[in-house]
Specification:
The protein contains 3 helices and 3 strands, in the order E-H-E-E-H-H. With about 100 residues, the protein is α+β, with helices and mostly antiparallel strands.
């Protein structure tokens, strides 16, 4: 596996990080996915070309730094909220 690191726009919180991690692991099979909210970076292990991952992240509202627009920013709020809700549901299930 090759290690990749991307600088992304619009990462604001753990909800954002959870949405990104879920997408990379479940859809692309990436491993060792790490999101640094403060730095706005994403690191992960993946063997294939990451162009499709970059496109998917941009559609979610997390484009590479310098490539974003207002639509990306709005999309990121939706992805963020989905990530927060999923994390809360998962934590509630574990605590039952």
């Amino acid at each position: 596996m090759q290690r990749h690191k991307l600088e992304l726009e619009n990462i604001k919180c753990n909800g954002c990080a959870n949405s990104i991690k879920t997408k990379l692991i479940n859809q692309f099979g990436a491993e060792k996915v790490e999101v640094d909210n403060e730095a706005g970076t994403l690191s992960f292990d993946y063997d294939a070309d990451i162009k499709m991952i970059e496109q998917s992240l941009a559609k979610m509202g997390y484009p590479k730094k310098g490539e974003g627009n207002a639509l990306n920013k709005a999309s990121s709020y939706v992805s963020c909220m989905i990530g927060r809700v999923k994390k809360d549901v998962e934590e509630a299930a574990v605590n039952q």
